[in-house]
């Protein structure tokens, strides 16, 4: 294997390992679990885990034999947060969604071809859905946040993604490309996405995209709850509220970009 290709493969595998460990925070994860979820042999997973720990990207709890994110990632994350973390800009809108609807409200960010949940705030309704929680990842087009983001990518990007990803293999026949395309068309028409219990039966979600200063969908606000709370009569009101708050956050981000010293 050429050196460049081998190096790219190592980086790809290391990235998968880091993502698996992050998905198990704060409880940590065993070597065997990392190997299984990153689709690696156990010796390969152990070598990567050990190497990443040596660089400070991971930390091993020797008493429990579980891997955790390391201090170097914290330092890098703190530096990257100024550019990528919009939690402070969106928190008020997430709180508004939870307060006014009674449902669980979320902020998710696009990371490549996935979404990562960054913030969850519970509403007042006592029966909740626990499909989404902070740190969980879903491919674009699966949960409502990812569907909202995917729907507003360019047609070329959507075609390339759906041709490459086989969502139905893991997420079920309801995620065949033709069905995802239909939901994309509906999302673009309404402005907001609806997930009618496609991940967990009876657990519904709705989402609206937040756009960066270049007009690209980069984050999303969403609501989840039980099916009876997302009746046909109520969905338009929930959708309008999601779009209203997503627009507010988008405007805040555009103002931040315009006020940035780098733009002066």
Automatic annotation (TrEMBL):
Residues 72-255 form the IclR-ED domain. Keywords: DNA-binding, Transcription, Transcription regulation. GO terms for molecular function: DNA binding; DNA-binding transcription factor activity. This is IclR-family regulatory protein. Residues 8-71 form the HTH iclR-type domain. SMART domains: HTH_ICLR (SM00346). One of its GO terms (biological process) is negative regulation of DNA-templated transcription. It comes from Subtercola lobariae.
């Amino acid at each position: 294997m050429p050196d460049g290709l081998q190096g790219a493969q190592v980086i790809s595998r290391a990235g998968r390992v880091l993502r698996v460990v992050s998905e198990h925070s704060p409880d940590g994860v065993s070597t065997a679990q990392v190997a299984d979820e990153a689709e690696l042999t156990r010796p390969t997973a152990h070598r990567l885990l050990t190497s990443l720990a040596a660089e400070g990207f991971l930390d091993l709890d020797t008493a429990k034999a579980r891997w955790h994110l390391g201090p170097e990632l914290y330092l890098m994350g703190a530096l990257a947060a100024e550019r990528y973390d919009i939690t402070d800009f969106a928190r008020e809108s997430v709180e508004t969604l939870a307060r006014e609807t009674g449902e669980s409200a979320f902020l998710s960010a696009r990371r490549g071809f996935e979404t990562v949940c960054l913030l969850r705030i519970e509403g007042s309704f006592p029966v909740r859905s626990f499909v989404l929680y902070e740190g969980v990842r879903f491919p674009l087009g699966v949960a409502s946040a990812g569907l909202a983001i995917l729907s507003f990518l360019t047609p070329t990007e959507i075609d390339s993604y759906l041709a490459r990803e086989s969502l139905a293999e893991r997420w079920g026949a309801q995620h065949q490309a033709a069905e995802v395309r239909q939901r994309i068309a509906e999302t673009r028409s309404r402005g907001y996405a609806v997930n009618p219990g496609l991940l967990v039966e009876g657990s519904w979600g709705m989402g609206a995209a937040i756009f960066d200063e270049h007009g690209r969908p980069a984050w999303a606000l969403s609501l989840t709850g039980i099916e009876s709370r997302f009746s046909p009569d109520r969905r338009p009101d929930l959708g309008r509220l999601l779009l209203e708050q997503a627009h507010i956050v988008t405007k805040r981000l555009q103002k931040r970009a315009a006020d940035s010293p780098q733009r002066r």
